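Example 3.2
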Amino acid sequence: MKKLVILGAGYGGMRILQRLLPEGLPEDVEITLIDRLPYHCLKTEYYALAAGTAADHHLRVSFPEDARLKVKYGTITNVNLDGKLVELENGDYVPYDKLIIGLGCEDKYHNVPGAAEHTNSIQTMDKTRRTYETLNNVRPNGVVSIVGAGLSGVELASELRESRPDLTIKLFDRGEIILSMFPRKLSTYVQNWFIDHGVDVINKSNITKVEEGILYNHDEAIECDAIIWTAGVQPVEVVRNLDVEKDKQGRVVLTPQHFLPTDEDVFVVGDCASLPHAPSAQLAEGQAEQIVTILKKQWDGEALPDELPRIKLKGVLGSLGKKHGFGLMGERTLLGRVPRVLKSGVLWMYKYHSGS
């Protein structure tokens, strides 16, 4: 039997499983999925778990059930490309014929002293659970600082405002206005929502150091009961350690067919892949669809296309608590209740009709 090994049950890995099982997998191929958890996690909703407005079990999606799918639980420590082996923390190793690396990303601290040691994270399920406990235990009228006002920081701050109205919430943003990469109309709406709801937005911030309970903005000390870091991501350490070509962000450079230029048996999907768009669940799923196409052609001995269609993204939807939101669909900016309802609908469809 040929062995297809998938590292990580993220959005890309799950979409590949959904497209290959039950009908798309050749009879002489078996799949091994390696992950630390026994379910797929809705990472785009970690902010709600951290804020206490979504239950842990609501963020889980079961793996497909199929006799040709083996699930191995463990922490991956190394990928031996020469030996075609995946090495695990417990000393086990898993051989592969085809490998798909979809291990996602982790926080990037930009060399800020103390940031890794003294801040909380929402990058993994385990870390998000600990962040929830930290936020849940903050004293009444305490101070919570969120570093980074991208999509994750914005959604966390707004959800926390509804969950804990007693808190002083400070949102630190390097730009002149929140979400500056989006149209000004959208950025202004979000910034004003925070002002209207009593969230302190600190624009043009520069976090220079973090100590236990103290955040330094432009070297000015700010005492905090909790500090959450949402100020950038990087590929996980296993991918950073791979001796392959990477871009300036440390993401793996791939051929148009999504495999390594030096190895057509190794694919990279999701946040670790160097692609012309910012990492997102949508992008990982679109890339996964194309990887499945390439895998089938390889297994059938067919010629591979020189180029693949551009991955089409439907847009961006973000929440501001449970009743308001924002979005960008093509050139159209959506503000208010409509994008929030749309986001809830998209999430429901993913959870209950994923892969269909």
